[in-house]
From TrEMBL:
It comes from the Bacteria. It holds the Pfam family GDPD. This is Glycerophosphodiester phosphodiesterase. InterPro entries: GP_PDE_dom. PANTHER family: GLYCEROPHOSPHODIESTER PHOSPHODIESTERASE, CYTOPLASMIC, GLYCEROPHOSPHORYL DIESTER PHOSPHODIESTERASE. Signal peptide: none annotated.
Length: 251
C-alpha cells in the first residue's frame, strides 16, 4: 500500500489576464500572463446584441472603455471600436474588447489553459452556453477549457449540452462540503472566494479529488500559504509574482 501524498505544483491562472499590470480582459493582458509564466488565464464572457461572445467583466462597457451602454444592447461592430485600455493607462490606448473567437485562436498554439467564466447572472443571455460550446469545439479546445459561473443553472445547461466539458462552480460563501454539491450538478472544480478556502475545504476537496481554485489571490502571504498547502490552483491578478513565489517555495 502506498500512502505517499504527492503534492503537485499549484497552477497559476491569470485573472482577467495579468490584470494587476495591464487592462483586464484585453489581449495585452493575456499576452502578459503568458510571458509571466502563467499556466492559464481566466476571462469573462458576455454576448453582444448580435450574439458575439466578447471578453469583458461588467455587463456594461462604462467602467473599462470610452463608451457607454449595456453589452446586450450594442452590436459587435459598435463594441469593436471602443478603447478598452486608456481607462487603465494611456499607453494602452490601442487595446480593444476581444472576442472569444480571437482569444481561442491566440491561445490554441500556446500551452495555456483557459478558464471561461460565463457572465450569465445579471443578464441571462439566451443560448450563451451553446454559442460558447460551439466555439470551443471549432478550435478543438475541449481538453484545455474550464467553464465556470456563479449561475449554476448555466453550468447545468452546459453539462447537459456536453458532459465532457469541464465545469466548475463559482461561489462566495462557506458552503459545507461543496464538492458533494458540485458533483451533484456534474461540476468538477471549486472556484471559491479566497476567504472561504479554509483548511477543512482544502483537505476535504483534496480527499474527494476535486480541485480548488480560489480567487482572487493577490497577497504574497496568501499565495505562499496556498502553494505550500498544495492547493491545486490559484486565480490571481499578479501571475508574475505568483510564479516567483511558487519557484521560491519549490527550493
Ligand atoms: O473566476 C473567478 C473570478 O473572476 C470571479 O469573479 O467578478 O472577478 O469575475 P469576478
Ligand atoms: Mg471572472
Amino acid at each position: 500500500q502506498n500512502n505517499e501524498v504527492i503534492l503537485l505544483d499549484t497552477l497559476i491562472f491569470a485573472h482577467r489576464g495579468a490584470a494587476g499590470t495591464h487592462p483586464e480582459n484585453t489581449m495585452a493582458s493575456f499576452e502578459a500572463a503568458l510571458k509571466a509564466g502563467a499556466d492559464g488565464i481566466e476571462l469573462d464572457v458576455q454576448l453582444t446584441s448580435d450574439n458575439v461572445p466578447v471578453i469583458i467583466h461588467d455587463e456594461t462597457v462604462n467602467r473599462t472603455t470610452d463608451g457607454e451602454g449595456w453589452i446586450k444592447d450594442l452590436t459587435y461592430e459598435e463594441i469593436s471600436k471602443l478603447d478598452a485600455g486608456t481607462w487603465f493607462d494611456s499607453s494602452f490606448n490601442k487595446a480593444s474588447i476581444p472576442t472569444l473567437d480571437q482569444v481561442l485562436d491566440w491561445v490554441k498554439p500556446t500551452r495555456l489553459l483557459l478558464n471561461i467564466e460565463l457572465k450569465n447572472g445579471v443578464v441571462r443571455y439566451s443560448n450563451l452556453e451553446k454559442i460558447i460550446l460551439d466555439l470551443i469545439n471549432k478550435y478543438e479546445m475541449k481538453d484545455r477549457v474550464i467553464i465556470s459561473s456563479f449561475n449554476h443553472y448555466s453550468l447545468v445547461e452546459m453539462h447537459q449540452l456536453d458532459p465532457e466539458v469541464e465545469t466548475a462552480i463559482l461561489f462566495m460563501e462557506g458552503i459545507y462540503e461543496p464538492w458533494k454539491y458540485a458533483k451533484s450538478i456534474g461540476a468538477k472544480g471549486l472556484h471559491c472566494f479566497l476567504p472561504v478556502a479554509v483548511p477543512e475545504l482544502l483537505i476535504g476537496a483534496a480527499q474527494a479529488e476535486m480541485p480548488v481554485r480560489p480567487f482572487t489571490v493577490n497577497d504574497d502571504n496568501h499565495m505562499e500559504n496556498l502553494i505550500k498547502a498544495g492547493c491545486p490552483a490559484i486565480i490571481t491578478d499578479w501571475p508574475e509574482k505568483a510564479v516567483h513565489i511558487r519557484n521560491k517555495a519549490a527550493n
